[in-house]
């Protein structure tokens, strides 16, 4: 069982701002996405966010989360941006949590949704 909070803290406080030199806006967007995902997972699993484990955040839960945000009115672009943030976190976990490689591979395989391209007049 892998504690999720430890890795989220390292990713948001050290990896993104220091190692990746991500902008504050990117960090805020990723933080907001993962906050929404944790709230969704906690409500669905009947636990507090601090009790969630990495194993709880599986493909089925992520897909349900993405469907939920679309149902609440988010655009496909917003959905894809949320998915990109989740995938970035799981990419970070690849070298840090080897037992979760299969789960990480499955999350990385979630496809983006196609958007309608606006034609230039």
How does this structure look, described?
By secondary structure, this protein is an all-alpha fold. It has one domain (4-108): DNA polymerase, domain 1 (Orthogonal Bundle), CATH 1.10.150. Helix content is 64%, strand content 0%. The protein is built from five helices and no strands. The chain has helices spanning 4-19, 24-45, 59-71, 76-93, 101-108. α3 (59-71) packs antiparallel against α4. The mean pLDDT is 93.
How are the SSEs placed, and which strands pair?
Blueprint: H1 4-19, H2 24-45, H3 59-71, H4 76-93, H5 101-108
Helix pairs in contact: 3-4
> N- to C-terminal separation?
54 Å
Name the beta content range: under 5%
The appropriate CATH architecture is Orthogonal Bundle
Number of domains: 1
Spans of at least 5 consecutive residues whose pLDDT stays below 50 are none
Outline, from the CA principal axes? globular
Q: Strand pairing plus helix content: what structural class?
A: mainly alpha
Q: Brief overview, please?
A:
This protein is mostly helical and 121 residues long. It has five helices and no strands.
Annotation keywords:
64% helix; globular; 121 residues; DNA polymerase, domain 1; 5 helices
